[in-house]
């Protein structure tokens, strides 16, 4: 099993951290991620020594015993020293930032759960809240909602405007009988609010008020 923790690194399931399941787990250190560097970066976690050796080879042009002995097709996937130095320092406060993100998520849930659909964690899980994504009530003009928040200085984002099966690269793959109405509906209704570890309570109250006002209006 291969796991994708690009937006979930630091979270856990039934007491086990993501990255300890399956054969290998990939994560991203893109700046927008909970543990982000200042450019592109990422990592793969595995306890399989043979796979780790292969991945190290792929990371550096597919090299073998030396830099000019390329034994497989590879790429340039090395994390540069500057990004590694940034991540080492940010990793020291990562647990504190996860705790802060959870407080932000709890405040959003308290302030918005009676006007929009808020995300909820399944029992036994924790989240790092890479985004805080709400679902707008059926019939809400999402573009109008985003514009109303923008007018009050509140940015929003949509993750993601198309479901996977609607992407050009995947359109030839079969879907279930009747299509995937749940996925398609979510793609039309979801929108994400500001989320980071340093969002102050005052700023968050202003965001919550803006959301409630846009829904009521």
Brief write-up:
This is dTDP-4-amino-4,6-dideoxygalactose transaminase. This protein is of the alpha+beta class and 217 residues long.
Q: What does this molecule look like?
A:
The protein is of the alpha+beta class and 217 residues long. The protein folds into two domains: 91 residues, Type I PLP-dependent aspartate aminotransferase-like (Major domain) (Aspartate Aminotransferase, domain 2); 123 residues, Aspartate Aminotransferase, domain 1 (Alpha-Beta Complex), CATH 3.90.1150.10. Helix content is 35%, strand content 12%. Helix 4 packs across helix 6. The mean pLDDT is 95.
CATH level-two architecture of the largest domain = Alpha-Beta Complex
How far is the N terminus from the C terminus? 47 Å
Q: Hey, roughly how much beta strand do the residues contain?
A: 5-15%
CATH fold type of the largest domain = Aspartate Aminotransferase, domain 1
List the uncertain runs: none
User: How many domains is the backbone divided into?
Assistant: 2
Alpha plus pi helix count: 6
- Helix/strand order, N-terminal first: EEEEEHHHEEHHEH
What is the spatial order of strands in the main beta sheet?
Answer: 1-4-5
Compute the number of strand runs: 8
Share of helix, binned: 25-40%
Radius of gyration, taken over Cα atoms and rounded to an integer in Å:
20 Å
Protein structure class:
alpha+beta
* Assembly classification: single chain
Protein name: dTDP-4-amino-4,6-dideoxygalactose transaminase
Organism: Bradyrhizobium japonicum
InterPro entries: DegT/StrS_aminotransferase, PyrdxlP-dep_Trfase, PyrdxlP-dep_Trfase_major, PyrdxlP-dep_Trfase_small
Pfam family, one: DegT_DnrJ_EryC1
